[in-house]
Amino acid sequence: MGLQDNAISYGSMLVLSLLLLLPLLAKGCDMFTGQWVKDPSYPLYDPSTCPFIRREFGCKKNGRPDLDYPTFRWQPQGCKLAWFNGVDFLQKNKGKKIMFVGDSLSLNQWQSLTCMLHSSVPKSPYTMTTEGTISTFTFQEYGVGIKFDRNPYLVDIVSDKIGSVMKLDSINDGKNWLGMDTLIFNTWHWWSRKSWDYIQIGSNFTKDMDRMAAFEIALGTWGKWVDTVVDTSKTRVFFQGISPSHYKLNEATVDHSQWMAEVVPEADEASKEQMGRRISSSFEDMKTQLMMRHILVRDLEMLVHSVVHLENHPMDHEGTKALGCFQEA
């Protein structure tokens, strides 16, 4: 399995729907089988009215000519999703803390959720602070904190006298994730990059190793952390599935123009099947082990929905000539 992909995210509403509709999942409702349908009541917020939105997310302001991309909503085959109600969301989560941990996929979710909630209560006072890698958006009236911790590998990367060291069996940064009511994690696409000088496992150091094997070890470390540290009777834990790459799957090189030309969701069964084969079975194995310990980790299956909604990405309309916002986030 190659690790050549860079992450993109299209399924913000899926995360929000799951946060609201866990009872449907408990009843056996399959929220992951369905299709994107055009809805004249969408989008749920206008990015131009979100005062804190990052520049790269303002596609319309940055000159994107087609405006249909945010007007599609996910419609499960056998379920009816409730309309997103920001006020209801804030009231139900009053006094609670929600944290996204991961790479650009989680950044997108955090940005979308905060803008959607702000558009529901535009006059409600808020604060936004950043400390280290953690950004916190707080709705003061409701005491709701929405956090994002940029941690693309989940395991620790530390500075040592020999250089930057990735510690595959250590999650000291997990102390920043404690006390949350909801935790939403993701990791994958940055594993194709070498953001360290050495990899450490126990007392052993190596310059590099098979990235898939490293990813599996890190995922196991994360699973052990959830098992031993998180009180899942008080904290809901989600793991976001893998999103597709920035380029069409049958292309050896990036060609933004081809997939950016897509302006409506397109179901490509071959692409879905091919991307499905890329997903490591290591997460399923780890999830099974956690379930044997009566710990439920909910996997948000982002992949298929993203493959059929490739046009919903701000790459060419981020207001900069640099790499795409999700490549650099």
UniProtKB/TrEMBL annotation:
One of its GO terms (cellular component) is membrane. One of its GO terms (molecular function) is O-acetyltransferase activity. Residues 28-80 form the Trichome birefringence-like N-terminal domain. Residues 1-28 form the signal peptide. It comes from the Eukaryota. Residues 82-276 form the Trichome birefringence-like C-terminal domain. Pfam families: PC-Esterase (PF13839), PMR5N (PF14416). It is found in: Membrane. InterPro entries: TBL (IPR029962), TBL_C (IPR026057), TBL_N (IPR025846). Keywords: Membrane, Signal, Signal-anchor, Transmembrane, Transmembrane helix. It is a single-pass membrane protein. Belongs to the PC-esterase family. TBL subfamily. This is Uncharacterized protein. It comes from Brassica campestris.
